[in-house]
Structure formats: C-alpha cells, structure tokens
Design goal:
Order of helices and strands: EHEHEHEHEHEHHHE
Distance between the termini: 37 Å
CATH topology: Rossmann fold
Family: Belongs to the short-chain dehydrogenases/reductases (SDR) family.
Strand content: 15-25%
Strand order of the largest sheet: 3-2-1-4-5-6-7
Structural class: alpha/beta
Keywords: Oxidoreductase
Helix content: 40-55%
CATH architecture: 3-Layer(aba) Sandwich
GO molecular function: oxidoreductase activity
Protein name: 3-alpha-hydroxysteroid dehydrogenase
Number of helices: 8
Radius of gyration: 17 Å
Largest sheet: 7 strands, parallel
Length: about 240
C-alpha cells in the first residue's frame, strides 16, 4: 500500500516540470490527483495517461472563481480533499527600478495570491475529511535575496505558511513550505536568467542542479502521515547553497 493510499490531492502547475513529477509520484503512492494548470494540452494528456486516478482542470491560479471551480470539480470526482500542493509559479526576473506595477503584480498574483486562494478554498474540504496537509512551494529566495517580485512572493509564501499552520492546526491540517534551490526544470532551463543560474550551480556544494524527483520525494514526505508532527516549518532542498 502506498504512502498516500485513499488520499485526494490537488497539485497546481501539474502539467509540466516539477509539478508533473509530483503528480506521477503521488499517483504511484496511491493518491487520486486533480492536476491543474493553464497548459490544457499537456495537462489533459497527463491525466489521460494516468487513467481514472487523475483528472485535469484548466486553472488560472490567480482567479478566485477558478479556485472555487477546482475544489468543486475535485470533490465531485474523488470526494473530500486531503492534500493541496501549491506548486504553480513563475520565475520572471524583474528590476525594482525599471519594472511597472502591472509587471510586479502579475508575479505576486501567480506566486503569492494563488497560495492564499488555494488554502482559503480547500480548508473546508479538509475539515470535512478530518485532516489534511498543505505543501506550499517557495524557494531559497524565500530565505535570501533575489529578483524583486519573485523574492517578495516567495518570502510571503513562507510567512503565509506559518500563519495558516497556526490557524489550521485545530482542524488537524498541517501546512509546510518547501524551499528548492536550482532544479532542472523547463522553467529554469528556459529562464531569461539561465546564464546566471549556471554560474550559481558552481556555488552549490553538491556541484549540480537537483532533479525534480528529489524535490517530489520531500513533498511526498510532507503530504504523507510520515510528517504527522511537522507543521509551520520550512524544508530546504538546495544542495547546501544556503549553508
């Protein structure tokens, strides 16, 4: 029996990259998964491949109405939600001096507001289920400096995680954040800052990027009952760079 047998999970940004890796591992461990993403073609193809244990829902994570629809459709397909993985995000590189407010707010909406909305609209379902686990994907830039907007949003995810963990503990719902370093994903490899990222890899004590599966295994731990006494904490997977 898998670590997530009988569990129902929502994984945002689940059609590609690290999100897809989370989805595949969660299904392998027995979960039923709602895959959400703006990439309908890849998301639906993944759900079709995985069969009746997965559904795809097109999802703008910054939209309140979309979140309400995602929760309703997931419950209709699988029942009350046990697990939320707030994985969707963008790594846009902005300048505090030269970026517009609209550019800034676009990053904040996707990386930060989406996490608030996800927690807000899944908590009732988790209360019905009797317990739950929320894993918010932040970044090492939620612990140290980086580009404006991205860093701000990832620090906010860390703070929201702690606030929600204290609020939701009474319901048996745990909330933790994961802070990856440099992960070999399409978002990283297609980043405008890829040359800078390559230079950063040389500063990593383990001397390499992480593979997405290495982060997924940490996310699995936090989503499972193995982490039953862990809440309100940040978990770092960065190859030692912050050390």
């Amino acid at each position: 029996m898998g670590k997530l047998a009988g569990k129902v999970a929502i994984i945002t940004g689940g059609a590609n990259g690290m999100g897809e890796t989370h989805v595949r591992l969660f299904v392998a461990e027995g979960a039923k998964v709602a895959i959400t993403d703006i990439d309908a073609e890849k998301g639906q193809a993944l759900a079709d491949e995985l069969g009746d244990v997965a559904i795809f829902i097109k999802h703008d994570v910054s939209s309140e109405a979309d979140w309400q629809a995602v929760v309703k459709e997931t419950e209709s397909a699988f029942g009350p939600i046990n697990i939320l993985i707030n994985n969707a995000g963008v790594s846009t590189v902005l300048s505090a001096e030269h970026s517009s407010l609209d550019e800034y707010m676009q990053v904040i909406k996707i990386n930060q507001v989406s996490v608030f909305l996800g927690m807000k609209y899944t908590i009732a379902s988790m209360k019905e289920a009797g317990s739950g686990a929320i894993v918010n994907i932040s970044s090492i830039n939620g612990l140290n400096g980086g580009a404006i907007a991205y860093t701000d949003s990832k620090f906010a995810v860390r703070g929201m995680t702690k606030a929600a963990a204290k609020e939701f503990a009474r319901y048996g719902v745990r909330v933790n954040s994961v802070h990856p370093g440099i992960i070999r994903t399409p978002m990283v490899e297609n980043s405008e800052a890829y040359e800078q990222i390559q230079q950063m890899v040389g500063m990593v004590p383990l001397q390499r990027m992480a593979e997405p599966e290495e982060i997924s295994k940490l996310v699995l731990f936090l989503a499972s009952d193995d982490a039953s006494y862990s809440t309100g904490s940040e978990f770092i997977a960065d190859g030692g760079i912050l050390a």
